[in-house]
Amino acid sequence: MNEEALLARASEERERIFQRYERGRENLVGQIDPWEDPEFEDYHKTDRYGFIHDERLLHKTAPQKVNVEVEREKKWVKMLGSWDTPATKEKLHRRIYKGIPNSLRIKIWCKLLNVNSMKSTNVGKYQEMLRLAKQWSTDVRQIDSDVNRQFREHQFYRERYSEKQCSLFNVLCAYSMYNSEVGYCQGMSGLAGVLLMYMDEEDAFWALAILLSDKKYAMHGLYVEGFPKLTRFLEHHDKILTKFMPKLKQHFDKFGLDAILYSLKWFFVCFVERVPFSLCLRVWDIYLLDGERVITAMAYTILKLHKKAIMKLNDMDLIVNYIQLHKDFGYEDDIVIHHLERSMDELKRAKIDYPGPPPPSELPQRQLGTFVEPDKKAKIGQRAENFSETEKQARATVILRREKAALELQELRVSQSDTVSDHSGVASGVRCEDSVSVLGSRRSLADTSVTSTADLSVFSSGRSHAPDNSLDTHSNISDDGTGSDGWGQRDRSKAIRWQSWRSQTKTYT
């Protein structure tokens, strides 16, 4: 198939996907595959945040807690009426740490992010980006796939082409044009999905734009080529563990457990799907107020609260699985937030609370909202044949962490056995089942990577660079979600264009 034919096919596919979202669910009767809609019974199984559970909910909100929230709502309504006054600014920190009433999050989050100001100075920009996306976006197929994988257990997103699925698709497509350096990266669907639970479509778009570009949050560095902010945050997290929890750090090193295996969603999407959703919202409240200091402090708090249990586990996979606390954190939300606040004070006193300002590589270099026409390879969907320099550096960083973990474990074993060992080629000398490599245990990495998380398995040496002459990102995946290379269902790397970091994850929930 020649180049012109491939371009025409890509254009037709993009138009076909957009048309389905524009028509909406009610106009697609009989055209939605049964597997696209998960089956749930709504009665008695939906919590107050809209998530549908497989079993009857065990706990109801106590009457006294309802009364407390009602009283807080009254105070917050009064504060919203005098938002810019000194009195409100004085009370804001204390009241946010106590918890924002769920019914008022839509207004307060918009205030904290200054969404209305951003929107008023960019009138018509969102609609312009959405129009451009319909004509030019090269990320439509991947966004379409991720939209139907994000929050499938939530009543807003469970039905294919529902109103919120359409909004999520539009926001992500529009942003892929607004920020041409990032385009779209898996993980962003989790951010936008949460924002859309509390905002309308355009507000969620500008909130996402602020989270990525504002220096207070600077999430651009997490999604841009090379993941520079992830590397920096992992190093900072290691410093915190070394200083405040050396025994736990030594325990992790003993079993070759690098932070990259358990902290991806902590840093990439601010704990979405890594702690119970009610607690996730409380962390988001504080994050929107205090910025990225909250992320490193919450990571420290999780390990501090669960240190005793973790120290009893003597296997890397067991530790990684234990830290997945999204269903049962083990502590009441108020207790966790209390410890989070103490952790932030503790880290601040030690002058290690802040990873430092983002370097230029973590901030947008191109003017946001300026259209950049994709090249022909991007339009067709061809994979990049070679790594860029940034990608080589990022890959080298992960390999270095892997080899460091291997070396530390090997040295520990030598000291324990009091035998002389050949230290040349340490990484290759350790057995695979010992799980010493940062990416050595594919099963462990898969367990850390849930729907829409950036898939760092692309760092593995087996990733293919062969050009693909098609937008069909599913061509190498069999119907059951497994491929010929032995990877499992939960985390399938499809290795689409490394240049724009569209790491593909074949994940079903």
UniProtKB/TrEMBL annotation:
Residues 99-291 form the Rab-GAP TBC domain. Residues 470-481, 500-509 have a biased composition (Polar residues). Acts as a GTPase-activating protein for RAB5A and RAB43. Involved in receptor trafficking. In complex with EPS8 inhibits internalization of EGFR. Involved in retrograde transport from the endocytic pathway to the Golgi apparatus. Involved in the transport of Shiga toxin from early and recycling endosomes to the trans-Golgi network. Required for structural integrity of the Golgi complex. It holds the Pfam family RabGAP-TBC. GO terms for cellular component: cytoplasmic vesicle; Golgi apparatus. The keyword Phosphoprotein applies. Keywords: Acetylation, Cytoplasmic vesicle, Golgi apparatus, GTPase activation, Phosphoprotein. Coiled coil: none annotated. Interacts with EPS8. Gene3D superfamilies: putative rabgap domain of human tbc1 domain family member 14 like domains, Ypt/Rab-GAP domain of gyp1p, domain 1, Ypt/Rab-GAP domain of gyp1p, domain 3. It comes from Danaus chrysippus. Residues 459-509 are annotated as: Disordered. PROSITE patterns: TBC_RABGAP. PANTHER family: RAB GTPASE-ACTIVATING PROTEIN 1-LIKE, USP6 N-TERMINAL-LIKE PROTEIN ISOFORM X1. One of its GO terms (molecular function) is GTPase activator activity. InterPro entries: Rab-GAP-TBC_dom, Rab-GAP_TBC_sf, Rab_GAP_TBC_domain. This is USP6 N-terminal-like protein. The keyword Phosphoprotein applies. It is found in: Cytoplasmic vesicle; Golgi apparatus. Its main location: cytoplasm.
